[in-house]
Amino acid sequence: MTKYLISFPSGAMDFPDEDLQAASDASHAVVEEAKAAGVWVFGGGIDESVPPVLVDGDGTVTEGTYPQTKQLEGGYAVLELPSREAALEWAAKLAVACRCAQEVRAFHYDPAS
Fold it and tell me: What family is this protein classified in (predicted)?
């Protein structure tokens, strides 16, 4: 089976503040459904209050990110699924729950992971 990354940037969640709890509850329900189906691997949101750093091979820590990932934020789910079609179905469920479109990407197969 293939692992799929289903994600969205935090700015995509554009709805009134009073709807936040309902969106949170709905997304947690999809997570529980994915766990019950045995396809959940990992998920969560990037803590945007903690600044990112780069760590070099010698242990040097530098504030910041690679330029192309400067806007890496939002929510992520990794699901292990039998097909791309299944990934699109789960992405649609998450899109409804989070009230925004979801990006779907497949990980290369790695038997060690």
Answer: Belongs to the YciI family.
State the Cα–Cα distance between residues 34 and 54, nearest whole angstrom. Answer: 32
Contact 60, 68 (CB under 8 A): no
Closest CA to 65 of 48, 42, 43, 78: 48
Indicate the residue type of 108: H
- How is 33-89 classified by DSSP, letter by letter? HHHHTT-EEEEEE--TTS--EEE-TT--EEES--GGGTT--SEEEEEEES-HHHHHH
- State phi, psi for 41 to the nearest 5 degrees: -110, -55
Q: What is the pLDDT of residues 20-61, one digit of tens each?
A: 999 999 999 999 999 999 999 999 988 889 988 889 999 999
SS3 category, 1: coil
User: Two tokens at 13?
Assistant: 């969640």
Residue 23 structure tokens: 């969106």
pTM, rounded to two decimals: 0.84
